[in-house]
Amino acid sequence: MSKRFDSKKLFYVFALLLIILVITFIVKIPREQSTLKKSVVSFDTSAVERIKIRPRIQDGEEFVFFRENGEWKIRQGDVVSRPREGAVTNILNDLVAIKPSALVAVSKDKWKDYDVNDSLGIRIIVENRKGKKLADLVIGRFSYKPVNNPYGGYGGGSIDGTSYIRQYDDEAVYSVDGFLTFSFSGGFDDWRNKDLLRFGRNDVTKVTFTFPADSGFILAKKDNKWFCGGEPADSALTFDYLGNAGYTYGEVFADSFKPAQKPVCQVVFEGNNMLNISLKCYTDENGTIYFTSSLNPYSYFSDESGNLRKQLLKPAGYFIKKP
User: Fold this and answer.
1) CA-CA distances (angstroms) from residue 30 to 23, 24, 175, 176, 292?
2) Which fold has domain 195-319?
3) pTM of the full structure
4) Domain boundaries, the chain
5) Which of 39, 115, 168, 294 could disulfide-pair with 141, CB 3.0 to 4.6 Å?
Protein backbone atom coordinates (compact mmCIF):
# COMPACT_ATOMS: atom_id res chain seq x y z
CA MET A 1 0.00 0.00 0.00
CA SER A 2 2.78 2.42 0.93
CA LYS A 3 4.69 1.61 -2.26
CA ARG A 4 1.58 2.36 -4.33
CA PHE A 5 1.10 5.60 -2.41
CA ASP A 6 4.72 6.59 -2.89
CA SER A 7 4.49 5.92 -6.62
CA LYS A 8 1.35 7.99 -6.89
CA LYS A 9 2.97 10.77 -4.86
CA LEU A 10 6.03 10.78 -7.09
CA PHE A 11 3.80 10.89 -10.14
CA TYR A 12 1.99 13.99 -8.84
CA VAL A 13 5.27 15.68 -7.95
CA PHE A 14 6.66 14.92 -11.38
CA ALA A 15 3.49 16.18 -13.06
CA LEU A 16 3.63 19.38 -11.01
CA LEU A 17 7.25 19.98 -11.98
CA LEU A 18 6.41 19.36 -15.61
CA ILE A 19 3.56 21.88 -15.45
CA ILE A 20 5.87 24.46 -13.86
CA LEU A 21 8.45 23.83 -16.57
CA VAL A 22 5.90 24.27 -19.34
CA ILE A 23 4.55 27.47 -17.80
CA THR A 24 8.08 28.80 -17.45
CA PHE A 25 8.80 28.01 -21.08
CA ILE A 26 5.59 29.66 -22.24
CA VAL A 27 5.91 32.78 -20.11
CA LYS A 28 9.60 33.40 -19.55
CA ILE A 29 11.11 32.56 -22.92
CA PRO A 30 8.94 34.95 -24.95
CA ARG A 31 9.63 37.61 -22.34
CA GLU A 32 13.37 37.17 -22.79
CA GLN A 33 13.02 37.16 -26.54
CA SER A 34 10.99 40.34 -26.39
CA THR A 35 13.98 42.20 -24.93
CA LEU A 36 15.66 41.93 -28.33
CA LYS A 37 14.13 44.65 -30.44
CA LYS A 38 13.33 44.01 -34.06
CA SER A 39 14.61 47.47 -34.92
CA VAL A 40 16.34 50.31 -33.10
CA VAL A 41 14.90 53.26 -34.98
CA SER A 42 11.89 53.74 -37.20
CA PHE A 43 11.01 56.97 -38.96
CA ASP A 44 9.95 58.43 -42.29
CA THR A 45 13.17 59.43 -44.04
CA SER A 46 11.32 62.07 -46.07
CA ALA A 47 10.50 63.94 -42.84
CA VAL A 48 14.15 64.39 -41.87
CA GLU A 49 15.48 67.96 -41.87
CA ARG A 50 18.62 67.70 -39.71
CA ILE A 51 21.15 65.04 -38.82
CA LYS A 52 23.57 65.86 -36.02
CA ILE A 53 26.72 63.80 -35.63
CA ARG A 54 28.93 64.04 -32.56
CA PRO A 55 32.02 62.08 -33.56
CA ARG A 56 34.58 60.52 -31.29
CA ILE A 57 36.66 63.07 -29.41
CA GLN A 58 39.69 62.54 -31.63
CA ASP A 59 37.59 63.29 -34.73
CA GLY A 60 36.61 66.82 -33.69
CA GLU A 61 33.47 68.74 -32.88
CA GLU A 62 29.83 68.13 -33.74
CA PHE A 63 28.64 68.83 -37.28
CA VAL A 64 25.17 69.01 -38.77
CA PHE A 65 23.57 68.01 -42.05
CA PHE A 66 20.64 70.31 -42.79
CA ARG A 67 18.24 70.82 -45.64
CA GLU A 68 17.97 74.28 -47.17
CA ASN A 69 15.75 75.03 -50.16
CA GLY A 70 15.61 71.34 -50.97
CA GLU A 71 19.40 70.95 -50.93
CA TRP A 72 21.40 69.15 -48.26
CA LYS A 73 24.35 71.00 -46.75
CA ILE A 74 26.76 70.30 -43.91
CA ARG A 75 27.86 72.78 -41.27
CA GLN A 76 30.35 72.95 -38.43
CA GLY A 77 30.38 76.27 -36.61
CA ASP A 78 30.42 78.99 -39.27
CA VAL A 79 31.71 76.71 -42.03
CA VAL A 80 29.11 75.48 -44.52
CA SER A 81 29.85 72.95 -47.27
CA ARG A 82 28.16 70.50 -49.54
CA PRO A 83 28.20 66.94 -48.22
CA ARG A 84 29.92 64.26 -50.23
CA GLU A 85 27.70 62.64 -52.81
CA GLY A 86 25.18 60.19 -51.38
CA ALA A 87 26.18 60.87 -47.77
CA VAL A 88 22.74 61.76 -46.41
CA THR A 89 20.97 58.98 -48.30
CA ASN A 90 23.46 56.43 -47.02
CA ILE A 91 23.12 57.67 -43.43
CA LEU A 92 19.33 57.40 -43.43
CA ASN A 93 19.30 54.03 -45.16
CA ASP A 94 21.86 52.64 -42.71
CA LEU A 95 19.87 53.86 -39.70
CA VAL A 96 16.47 52.48 -40.67
CA ALA A 97 18.09 49.17 -41.65
CA ILE A 98 19.64 48.53 -38.21
CA LYS A 99 18.56 45.12 -36.88
CA PRO A 100 19.96 44.06 -33.48
CA SER A 101 21.43 40.57 -33.46
CA ALA A 102 21.86 40.22 -29.68
CA LEU A 103 21.42 42.01 -26.37
CA VAL A 104 24.96 42.20 -24.96
CA ALA A 105 24.55 44.46 -21.91
CA VAL A 106 21.76 45.97 -19.81
CA SER A 107 23.72 48.32 -17.53
CA LYS A 108 25.61 51.56 -18.13
CA ASP A 109 28.53 50.01 -16.26
CA LYS A 110 29.23 48.07 -19.46
CA TRP A 111 29.04 51.03 -21.85
CA LYS A 112 32.77 51.62 -21.85
CA ASP A 113 33.40 48.00 -22.83
CA TYR A 114 31.52 48.60 -26.06
CA ASP A 115 32.53 52.27 -26.63
CA VAL A 116 28.94 53.49 -26.36
CA ASN A 117 29.51 56.13 -23.68
CA ASP A 118 29.63 59.86 -24.47
CA SER A 119 33.41 60.09 -24.87
CA LEU A 120 34.02 56.97 -26.95
CA GLY A 121 30.87 56.59 -29.02
CA ILE A 122 29.49 58.32 -32.11
CA ARG A 123 26.17 59.98 -31.36
CA ILE A 124 23.61 60.37 -34.16
CA ILE A 125 20.57 62.64 -33.71
CA VAL A 126 17.90 62.80 -36.42
CA GLU A 127 15.32 65.62 -36.30
CA ASN A 128 12.34 66.76 -38.30
CA ARG A 129 11.49 70.32 -39.31
CA LYS A 130 10.09 71.17 -35.88
CA GLY A 131 13.18 69.90 -34.08
CA LYS A 132 11.52 66.73 -32.81
CA LYS A 133 13.94 63.84 -32.42
CA LEU A 134 13.19 60.97 -34.75
CA ALA A 135 16.21 58.98 -33.63
CA ASP A 136 18.98 59.36 -31.06
CA LEU A 137 21.55 56.63 -30.73
CA VAL A 138 25.20 55.97 -29.98
CA ILE A 139 27.36 53.79 -32.20
CA GLY A 140 30.28 52.12 -30.48
CA ARG A 141 33.21 49.93 -31.32
CA PHE A 142 33.62 47.36 -34.02
CA SER A 143 34.84 43.79 -33.72
CA TYR A 144 35.49 41.17 -36.35
CA LYS A 145 36.33 37.54 -36.73
CA PRO A 146 37.72 35.61 -39.70
CA VAL A 147 35.34 33.15 -41.31
CA ASN A 148 36.51 30.11 -43.21
CA ASN A 149 34.97 30.06 -46.65
CA PRO A 150 35.97 27.31 -49.07
CA TYR A 151 34.70 29.47 -51.93
CA GLY A 152 36.49 32.63 -50.80
CA GLY A 153 39.29 32.41 -53.36
CA TYR A 154 42.89 32.91 -52.35
CA GLY A 155 43.22 32.55 -48.60
CA GLY A 156 39.87 30.74 -48.40
CA GLY A 157 38.30 33.13 -45.92
CA SER A 158 36.36 36.31 -45.26
CA ILE A 159 35.53 38.54 -42.31
CA ASP A 160 32.34 38.91 -40.28
CA GLY A 161 31.93 42.26 -38.56
CA THR A 162 29.93 43.27 -35.50
CA SER A 163 29.13 46.80 -34.35
CA TYR A 164 27.66 47.83 -30.98
CA ILE A 165 24.92 50.40 -30.43
CA ARG A 166 22.49 51.75 -27.88
CA GLN A 167 19.64 54.20 -27.90
CA TYR A 168 20.77 57.36 -26.14
CA ASP A 169 18.03 57.26 -23.49
CA ASP A 170 18.39 53.51 -22.88
CA GLU A 171 21.04 51.58 -20.95
CA ALA A 172 20.76 48.44 -23.09
CA VAL A 173 23.56 47.70 -25.57
CA TYR A 174 22.95 45.67 -28.72
CA SER A 175 25.21 44.03 -31.25
CA VAL A 176 24.54 44.59 -34.93
CA ASP A 177 25.92 42.47 -37.74
CA GLY A 178 27.99 44.39 -40.25
CA PHE A 179 30.30 47.37 -40.49
CA LEU A 180 27.99 50.09 -39.14
CA THR A 181 30.76 51.69 -37.05
CA PHE A 182 32.87 52.36 -40.14
CA SER A 183 29.89 53.88 -41.96
CA PHE A 184 29.68 56.68 -39.37
CA SER A 185 33.36 57.16 -38.55
CA GLY A 186 35.33 60.31 -39.31
CA GLY A 187 35.13 64.02 -38.67
CA PHE A 188 33.63 67.00 -40.46
CA ASP A 189 36.08 67.07 -43.38
CA ASP A 190 35.56 63.37 -44.07
CA TRP A 191 31.88 64.01 -44.84
CA ARG A 192 32.42 67.08 -47.05
CA ASN A 193 32.33 67.17 -50.82
CA LYS A 194 35.85 67.51 -52.21
CA ASP A 195 34.83 67.72 -55.87
CA LEU A 196 36.45 70.50 -57.89
CA LEU A 197 35.64 69.31 -61.39
CA ARG A 198 33.33 66.57 -62.61
CA PHE A 199 32.53 66.03 -66.28
CA GLY A 200 32.92 63.54 -69.11
CA ARG A 201 35.79 64.43 -71.41
CA ASN A 202 33.75 63.56 -74.50
CA ASP A 203 31.16 66.17 -73.52
CA VAL A 204 33.57 69.13 -73.45
CA THR A 205 33.74 71.27 -76.60
CA LYS A 206 35.46 74.41 -75.32
CA VAL A 207 37.92 75.34 -72.58
CA THR A 208 38.75 79.00 -71.92
CA PHE A 209 41.98 79.70 -70.03
CA THR A 210 42.31 83.17 -68.48
CA PHE A 211 45.88 83.83 -67.32
CA PRO A 212 47.81 86.96 -66.23
CA ALA A 213 49.42 89.29 -68.78
CA ASP A 214 46.96 88.35 -71.51
CA SER A 215 48.51 84.89 -71.84
CA GLY A 216 45.16 83.16 -71.90
CA PHE A 217 43.82 81.16 -74.81
CA ILE A 218 40.88 79.07 -75.98
CA LEU A 219 40.92 75.34 -76.59
CA ALA A 220 38.01 74.52 -78.89
CA LYS A 221 36.64 71.52 -80.74
CA LYS A 222 35.51 72.01 -84.34
CA ASP A 223 34.43 69.23 -86.68
CA ASN A 224 35.76 66.66 -84.19
CA LYS A 225 39.20 68.28 -84.19
CA TRP A 226 40.77 70.30 -81.40
CA PHE A 227 42.35 73.71 -81.91
CA CYS A 228 44.38 75.83 -79.52
CA GLY A 229 44.20 79.54 -80.27
CA GLY A 230 43.32 78.70 -83.86
CA GLU A 231 46.21 76.27 -84.33
CA PRO A 232 45.79 72.49 -84.51
CA ALA A 233 46.04 70.91 -81.06
CA ASP A 234 47.48 67.55 -80.12
CA SER A 235 44.32 65.45 -79.77
CA ALA A 236 45.97 62.84 -77.53
CA LEU A 237 47.28 65.44 -75.06
CA THR A 238 43.94 67.24 -75.08
CA PHE A 239 42.10 63.97 -74.49
CA ASP A 240 44.39 63.12 -71.56
CA TYR A 241 44.04 66.61 -70.06
CA LEU A 242 40.25 66.51 -70.14
CA GLY A 243 40.17 62.97 -68.79
CA ASN A 244 42.32 63.89 -65.80
CA ALA A 245 40.62 67.24 -65.19
CA GLY A 246 37.15 65.70 -65.31
CA TYR A 247 37.72 63.85 -62.04
CA THR A 248 39.54 66.37 -59.88
CA TYR A 249 39.29 66.51 -56.10
CA GLY A 250 40.52 69.24 -53.77
CA GLU A 251 43.35 68.28 -51.44
CA VAL A 252 43.16 70.31 -48.21
CA PHE A 253 40.18 72.43 -47.14
CA ALA A 254 41.16 76.05 -46.53
CA ASP A 255 38.23 77.32 -44.47
CA SER A 256 40.07 80.39 -43.18
CA PHE A 257 40.91 81.67 -46.67
CA LYS A 258 38.85 84.59 -47.93
CA PRO A 259 39.79 85.97 -51.37
CA ALA A 260 40.72 89.63 -51.15
CA GLN A 261 41.07 90.10 -54.91
CA LYS A 262 39.98 88.68 -58.23
CA PRO A 263 41.27 85.25 -59.24
CA VAL A 264 44.72 85.24 -60.82
CA CYS A 265 43.67 82.42 -63.16
CA GLN A 266 40.40 81.00 -64.36
CA VAL A 267 39.46 78.01 -66.51
CA VAL A 268 35.93 77.58 -67.86
CA PHE A 269 34.76 74.24 -69.26
CA GLU A 270 31.81 74.24 -71.67
CA GLY A 271 30.15 71.50 -73.67
CA ASN A 272 27.20 69.28 -74.37
CA ASN A 273 25.12 67.58 -71.66
CA MET A 274 26.78 69.69 -68.98
CA LEU A 275 26.54 73.04 -67.26
CA ASN A 276 29.48 75.40 -67.62
CA ILE A 277 32.01 74.83 -64.84
CA SER A 278 34.27 77.66 -63.76
CA LEU A 279 37.53 76.86 -61.96
CA LYS A 280 39.16 79.79 -60.13
CA CYS A 281 42.67 80.10 -58.74
CA TYR A 282 43.74 82.58 -56.04
CA THR A 283 46.91 83.39 -54.13
CA ASP A 284 47.51 84.97 -50.73
CA GLU A 285 50.29 87.23 -49.47
CA ASN A 286 52.48 84.20 -48.82
CA GLY A 287 52.14 82.89 -52.36
CA THR A 288 49.97 79.92 -51.37
CA ILE A 289 47.64 78.86 -54.18
CA TYR A 290 43.94 78.14 -53.59
CA PHE A 291 41.29 76.65 -55.85
CA THR A 292 37.51 76.72 -55.90
CA SER A 293 34.90 75.98 -58.56
CA SER A 294 31.29 76.68 -59.44
CA LEU A 295 30.67 72.97 -58.86
CA ASN A 296 31.60 73.36 -55.18
CA PRO A 297 31.38 77.11 -54.46
CA TYR A 298 31.32 76.81 -50.66
CA SER A 299 34.82 75.35 -50.42
CA TYR A 300 38.37 76.52 -51.05
CA PHE A 301 41.28 74.12 -51.27
CA SER A 302 44.94 74.92 -50.73
CA ASP A 303 47.33 73.51 -53.31
CA GLU A 304 50.28 72.93 -51.00
CA SER A 305 51.68 70.13 -53.13
CA GLY A 306 51.30 72.04 -56.40
CA ASN A 307 49.59 69.06 -58.01
CA LEU A 308 46.40 70.93 -58.91
CA ARG A 309 48.29 73.77 -60.55
CA LYS A 310 50.39 71.35 -62.62
CA GLN A 311 47.37 69.29 -63.62
CA LEU A 312 44.89 72.05 -64.47
CA LEU A 313 46.75 75.23 -65.45
CA LYS A 314 48.44 74.19 -68.67
CA PRO A 315 50.03 76.78 -71.03
CA ALA A 316 49.02 77.00 -74.68
CA GLY A 317 52.27 75.42 -75.75
CA TYR A 318 51.29 72.20 -74.02
CA PHE A 319 48.34 71.64 -76.38
CA ILE A 320 49.69 72.91 -79.71
CA LYS A 321 50.60 70.05 -82.01
CA LYS A 322 54.32 69.77 -82.57
CA PRO A 323 55.51 69.51 -86.19
Assistant:
1) 11, 10, 20, 21, 59
2) Immunoglobulin-like (2.60.40)
3) 0.81
4) 45-191, 195-319
5) 115
